[in-house]
């Protein structure tokens, strides 16, 4: 049975729930030999519809794991993840796949476009995978125009710049009108000017269209574009603060460094299971 279906449409779910994403006491451990790596330890996070949240932390602090839990790409070993009113643990594999395709937009550092397809068909991929019934080329054109890539739709990824490729990936993530847009280090492969233009684009999508965005980054110059910053250290949230408290990336960077230096005493990252 498809457990995504209910009396409420996904859009009605969004409106009924102020928090579009709720992570409660979520833990994730990975087996490693006789021990386990605790990538996340009892993480709690509530994200309101239309918010732009940056998750910061050093490499290995659990940022991608947190994003993957919210995306339903992996399941927590403890706690719960509710997105768009749906507790992901209640979904069958087939329903989870459908939920991911329809309600989650995901973009990555490496763009992950299909090299053999032009930009237009890359953008259409999630709809094709879902068995697209009607011609959506008008939707692609409109979205591409909003993202500034309408003149590049016939081009394959290898003839697009990095910034253009990421815009195509953002269009692909948005074509299904997802409940949340998740971005894992989306500027990590771009020069700083192009990276900033992608940040501005994400900010505009939030301000002008009410998109909910959860972005993972270790760069203060990226996090400063968000509304709220969440800092992870050794799999735990050690601080949350509004980005608007900081005038620029430099002052946010100084605060971030203070948090990392003074954060909770680091528990052992590798805990024995027996
Ligand atoms: N699939 C996996 N198997 C084993 N360990 C993993 C796996 N994914 C992540 N980890 C470990 O979990 C911790 C957090 O990783 P990750 O979430 O990728 O951190 P970040 O994105 O902040 O760099 C790291 O110690 C990493 O090695
Ligand atoms: Mg990562």
TrEMBL record:
Keyword Nucleotide-binding listed? The answer is: yes
The protein's matches in InterPro entries, at most eight in alphabetical order, are given as: AAA+_ATPase (IPR003593), ABC_transporter-like_ATP-bd (IPR003439), ABC_transporter-like_CS (IPR017871), ABC_transpr_LolD-like (IPR015854), MacB-like_ATP-bd (IPR017911), P-loop_NTPase (IPR027417)
Q: Which domain of life is it from?
A: Bacteria
Gene3D superfamilies documented for this protein? P-loop containing nucleotide triphosphate hydrolases (3.40.50.300)
Q: Where is the ABC transporter domain?
A: 21-259
Q: Give the originating organism.
A: Roseiconus lacunae
Query: Pfam families recorded for this chain?
Result: ABC_tran (PF00005)
Which keywords has UniProt assigned to this entry?
A: ATP-binding, Nucleotide-binding, Transport
For this chain, one GO molecular function annotation is: ATP binding
Q: Which residues form a coiled coil?
A: none
Q: Per the record's keyword annotation, is Chaperone included, yes or no?
A: no
Protein name, entry field: ABC transporter ATP-binding protein
């Amino acid at each position: 049975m498809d457990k995504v279906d209910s009396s409420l449409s996904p859009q009605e779910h969004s409106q009924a729930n102020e928090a579009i994403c709720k992570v409660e006491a979520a833990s994730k451990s990975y087996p490693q030999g006789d021990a386990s790596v605790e990538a996340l330890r009892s993480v709690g996070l509530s994200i309101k519809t239309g918010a732009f949240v940056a998750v910061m932390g050093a490499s290995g602090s659990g940022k991608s794991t947190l994003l993957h839990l919210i995306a339903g790409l992996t399941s927590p070993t403890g706690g719960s993840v509710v997105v768009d009113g749906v507790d992901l643990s209640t979904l069958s594999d087939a329903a989870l796949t459908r939920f991911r395709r329809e309600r989650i937009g995901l973009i990555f550092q490496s763009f992950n476009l299909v090299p053999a397809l032009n930009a237009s068909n890359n953008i259409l991929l999630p709809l094709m995978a879902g068995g697209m019934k009607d011609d959506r080329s008008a939707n692609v054109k409109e979205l591409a125009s909003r993202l500034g890539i309408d003149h590049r739709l016939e081009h394959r990824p290898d003839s697009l710049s990095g910034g253009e490729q990421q815009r195509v990936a953002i269009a692909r993530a948005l074509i299904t009108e997802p409940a949340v847009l998740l971005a894992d280090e989306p500027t990590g492969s771009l020069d700083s000017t192009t990276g900033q233009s992608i940040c501005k684009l994400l900010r505009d999508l939030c301000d002008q269209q009410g998109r909910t965005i959860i972005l993972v980054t270790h760069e203060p110059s990226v996090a400063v574009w968000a509304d709220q910053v969440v800092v992870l250290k050794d799999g735990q949230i050690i601080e949350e603060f509004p980005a608007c408290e900081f005038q620029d990336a430099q002052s946010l960077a100084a605060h971030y460094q203070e948090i990392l230096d003074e954060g909770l005493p680091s528990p052992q990252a590798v805990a024995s299971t027996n």
